[in-house]
Description:
This protein is α+β, with helices and mostly antiparallel strands. The chain is 21% helix and 24% strand. The chain folds into two domains: 10-71, no CATH class; 85-137, no CATH class. The chain has a five-stranded antiparallel sheet with strand order 4-3-7-6-5, with no helix packed on it. Strands 1-2 form a two-stranded antiparallel sheet.
Amino acid sequence: MLQLNTTDQDGLLNLIIKNTTKALRFKLGLNAGKEFPQELDYIVLEVCVRRYNRLKNEGMASYSQEGESITFKSDDFDDFLSESINLRWGAKTDSDLIATLNPGDVVTYDAFSKHDGYVWLRQVRDNGQFGYLASGECDNSDKCISSWDKFE
């Protein structure tokens, strides 16, 4: 798909594949040790192509030069995921799953935190316990770099 004729870019391509696979595993709630569904391999391939084609433009929302203009999506997975978000017992990707929230589901949250590369929202459960959901990504300086849903 990339029409590469040499192996010069193999190291970079392997890094893109590794990071894309990790990101999709997180979005799907697949903890380490859980098998990756082969029927979703096409998503990794398509997102890897997008990320490779965006090299040297990472972090940009748009790019233009001499009459050419390119706009990048804020999340490379938007076209593939159903926008479901996992609600967990803890604010960690390996915490046990409570439920999967679908588009249109409404969650009231009372607090948020930024750690481990994500923005976490805390939901008070009916039993007084808390549920947590990742609502987007943040960088090392805790700046939000993506949002996975609509917040009011």
